[in-house]
Design goal:
Shape: globular
Number of strands: 11
Strand content: 15-25%
Largest sheet: 4 strands, antiparallel
Strand order of the largest sheet: 1-8-3-6
Number of helices: 9
């Protein structure tokens, strides 16, 4: 890691409150690298050598079995992945690949486990990230079980709008094939879902979705009544 990059990385949520000496211990063993699109970062079943922290770019977490792939999560900056495997020193339950040029901090997994024991702030930040990931997983599972495909898409659009500032103009982060996989539907069903939402307050132009009637979209998609302080 170049000296000029350290202040930016030190301000990331995972490291912000750490003791200076322990943060330097982390940084001295870490690497900040830029990866091209469509590069596999690790495979399902591998043991984690590094904690990955996405600083810029976009990463897909996916699983595969019997010749079939499914998108589990699309990771946006700034967050770590997959922290649970690193903390427990267990094999990854998902594979990861870049979807865009991505700047990723690689922190040796063994070093993370060592420093967590010595630095209370890092331990608390780790617990927060694991808690956020767990709550996101519960919301995704609830979404899959309780909502129809067009309702799931409507909720994704509302969440993305909130993350992107609430202007009502949503830039889709990934191609529609990946969005379909993420939402548990085929590309054809995704197209039909966009058509359904056209009658409930959205307009689509390529990768940009405009919310034309927020009240209608919310009434149709039924967003979660319980909200977190983070998005």
């Amino acid at each position: 890691m170049r000296p000029g990059e350290r202040p930016e990385i030190a301000n990331l949520p995972l490291f912000r409150e750490m003791q200076d000496s322990q943060r330097e211990r982390i940084f001295s063993g870490s690497f900040l690298q830029v990866f091209p699109p469509q590069l596999t970062l690790f495979e399902l079943g591998q043991r984690p050598d590094f904690l990955h922290v996405l600083v810029d770019g976009l990463v897909e977490l996916y699983s595969h079995s019997a010749g079939r792939d499914t998108t589990m999560r699309i990771v946006e900056p700034v967050t770590s992945f997959i922290l649970a495997a690193v903390v427990t020193d267990q094999p990854y339950l998902m594979s990861a690949r870049t979807l865009a040029p991505s700047r990723i901090l690689l922190v040796p997994a063994a070093l993370v486990r060592e420093v967590v024991k010595d630095d209370l702030a890092l331990m608390q930040a780790t617990m927060r990230e694991l808690a956020h990931a767990y709550r996101d997983m519960v919301r995704a599972l609830t979404d899959m079980k309780l909502r129809q495909s067009a309702e799931r898409l409507g909720n994704l659009i509302l969440r993305q709008d909130e993350r992107q500032g609430g202007s009502g103009k949503v830039q889709l982060k990934a191609e529609k094939r990946l969005l379909a996989s993420l939402l548990g539907m085929t590309p054809e069903n995704l197209s039909r879902a966009f058509g359904v939402l056209g009658g409930h307050g959205i307009a689509v132009n390529g990768a940009q979705v405009t919310i034309t009637d927020r009240a209608a979209l919310e009434a149709f998609a039924r967003p979660d009544p319980v909200r977190d302080d983070w998005v």
